[in-house]
């Protein structure tokens, strides 16, 4: 049954779910800073004032620094996808902080280019891990009414961190930036200490008492009536049945046949398709190559200012998405987002095509507006919601592994798009590149409308028979 959005009067009921989600997303905000660090720092590394003892980095070295993060992304996704069900979300959260802290330490003490390669691989491992562990954790603890909003906080904190990284990287020294942000990891570790693991993890380990206390904590359960106690007990029983099956049969091990069931196949295909759309919409590449695109448009704005503007617009879009996702639904936002990205991409493509033969420098605001429109609408759905929808459309039994598979595909796609995007810009021009990206999101809107189910307020407890 679909449930409406939560009222402010019900915040007390969900306060621990909200606070826990904010706490775990501190590491996501910090990781966003790690991603945002590169854009404003790369020109410094390429200049004569490079802080490295080896001097300015070459274009080839800069290319590897940019793309090698994807190697770490695959490693992080695979490793933590296997770990999260075995050791639980809480310990996984602690472990993913290790490569993240090491990333900042390498930046602080690194002096040569290979140190930056190592740092970016560590950054990728953290990124692959957080996009597996945090969505799984939030989906497990969140009530149906606010699950979409809490899931959207993942990308909101990520984009907020990127914006913070853009600003700090532009105006702080190379050595001061990491020394400030590394403190967030300490705050994260302290707050996570006070959170119990998810009820689902304790149930898998047959720790019924811990599961009961965990569910009470995250539901802020303070029964005052017999009906409330009965509803709570029924929910706990449903969780146990969902994970272990009925009590007259033993829990079954995960096999490849579980992934051949209709719900699992459908969910995995949708998840990978949304990850493809997330990357090949061109939005991630647009953020990485904002300076080049603004220069191609004839804009005379300062590149650092352009980067901050793009980061601000992206964050604003995800804030709107978090507000709307449990009010109008995931599918509506995804379709609207795809249409908006298509319009913005085509507008930028047309402007770029006309600027080849005409001097349109005085109209460069059109290019800025088109790019900003595409990124803003993309931040409504194409960028944040694939991670939300992915954890909602998969049967519980295969969720952790399936999320890992879909999430592992993301850095591979990111590597591909970051590699081919500059080549497309040269061979096809900006107009050809944006036309292709706009076409992809146009097809994406149609596919989402017909094949992606609405999960707003739906119960996540998919039975074994249904899967």
Write up what this structure looks like:
- It is found in: Cell membrane.
- The chain crosses the membrane at residues 18-42, 62-84, 91-112, 118-138, 150-171, 177-196, 263-287, 307-325, 332-353, 365-388, 400-421, 433-452.
- With 467 residues, this protein is mainly alpha-helical.
- It has two domains: 12-220, Growth Hormone, Chain: A; 257-467, Growth Hormone, Chain: A, CATH 1.20.1250.
- The chain has 21 helices and no strands.
- The longest helix has 41 residues, at 69-109.
- It starts with 10 loop residues before the first helix and ends in a 16-residue tail after the last helix.
Would you summarize the structure shown here?
The chain has 467 residues and is mostly helical. The chain folds into two domains: 12-220, Growth Hormone, Chain: A (Up-down Bundle); 257-467, Growth Hormone, Chain: A (Up-down Bundle), CATH 1.20.1250. It has helices at 11-24, 26-36, 38-46, 59-67, 69-109, 113-141, 147-171, 176-181, 183-193, 199-204, 208-219, 226-244, 262-280, 283-288, 290-296, 303-328, 330-355, 364-378, 385-390, 396-427, 429-451.
The CATH architecture category of the largest domain equals: Up-down Bundle
User: CATH superfamily name of the largest domain?
Assistant: MFS general substrate transporter like domains
Largest sheet: none
> Which percent range fits the helix content?
over 70%
- The total count of strands amounts to 0
Secondary structure class reads mainly alpha
Overall 3D geometry? Answer: globular
Instruction: List the domain count as a whole number.
Output: 2
- So what's the CATH class of the largest domain? Mainly Alpha
Q: How far apart, in Å, are the first and last alpha carbons?
A: 18 Å
Radius of gyration: 23 Å
Name the average pLDDT.
83
Percent range for β-strand residues: under 5%
Number of helices: 21
CATH topology term of the largest domain: Growth Hormone, Chain: A
Helix-strand string: HHHHHHHHHHHHHHHHHHHHH
Sequence stretches where pLDDT stays below 50 over 5 or more residues: 463-467
